[in-house]
Design a protein that fits this description.
- A hairpin with a 2-residue loop joins strand 2 and strand 3.
- This protein is of the alpha+beta class.
- The radius of gyration is 14 Å and the shape is globular.
- It has a 4-stranded mixed β-sheet with strand order 3-2-1-4, covered by helices on one side.
- The chain contains 1 helix and 4 strands.
Length: about 80
């Protein structure tokens, strides 16, 4: 396979990093590769994106949100 035949997949503008053990636990949210805020729930992620001018229509769409270290239901440290 050559580089010309590899399908292009755009990166999500919103990235939610793994859970940090704190009281309460939180995840870091990045927009366009820059730290924007912390989130303690999916709603925080949507609100943060909206504040940055991004509308998230589907939290399961990897083109919209990239979940690192656990999916959208993972909010407690392992």
């Amino acid at each position: 396979m050559t580089e010309g035949t590899i399908p292009y997949m755009s990166a999500a503008r919103v990235t939610v990093l793994g859970v940090h053990a704190a009281d309460p636990p939180f995840r870091i949210v990045e927009v366009d590769g820059e730290f924007v805020s912390t989130a303690r729930s999916m709603i925080d992620v949507v609100v943060t994106a909206a504040a940055a001018g991004i509308t998230i229509r589907d939290l399961d769409d990897p083109g919209e949100v990239r979940w690192v270290g656990g999916g959208k239901y993972h909010w407690s440290p392992q």
